[in-house]
Amino acid sequence: MPNSERLLVLLRHGQSDWNLKNLFTGWRDPDLSPTGVEEATEAGRRLKAQGLTFDVAYTSALTRAQHTLALTLAALDQTGLPEHRDQALNERHYGDLCGLNKDDARKKWGEEQVHLWRRSYDVPPPGGESLKDTVARALPYYCQHILPDVLRGKRVLVAAHGNSLRALVMVLDRLTPETIPSMELATGVPLVYRLNADSTVASKDVLTA
């Protein structure tokens, strides 16, 4: 089977209303901002320009990821694609930080503490998840559902969140707990992976403008 048939595209949702307002979002459920709507549509245009089509899609239980997927598929002329939604792909849960302005959080807890919560691998915010916790729920879902589809030759699109996708990128790009916290995923920018038969990465393309 050629690599081109083992296609996996990861897409962080477009900018949400709360991204725009600089709020910790987590499992809260704001929709896309007007910019986010355009980012999601543009992601579909870029994928279409590459001649890519899909057989199945995965997304989270949150509106901003689902809306991104719908807009991207519309731009690809692929509405009605089989779609699986699961909270295993939800954004990291920020606990007590959810809904707070990031600048206000820094004033309350201090710059160093908030930075530790946001950028460490295994230190969770109060009542929330660390990146390690997010990996612990997103990665098994990937191994049990998404990866088998890819290895069977299905072309798979995953529209999810910065941290749940970082969990997948950590494995695909062979990053470590030391290097993954500093890795950023831009909103609305598709990561196009082609996998080998042993699930390792044959190629990776980042479809920036």
Automatic annotation (TrEMBL):
GO terms for biological process: gluconeogenesis; glycolytic process. The active site is at 13 (tele-phosphohistidine intermediate), 91 (proton donor/acceptor). InterPro entries: His_Pase_superF_clade-1, His_PPase_superfam, PG/BPGM_mutase_AS, Phosphogly_mut1. Pfam families: His_Phos_1. SMART domains: PGAM. Homodimer. This is 2,3-bisphosphoglycerate-dependent phosphoglycerate mutase. The gene is gpmA.
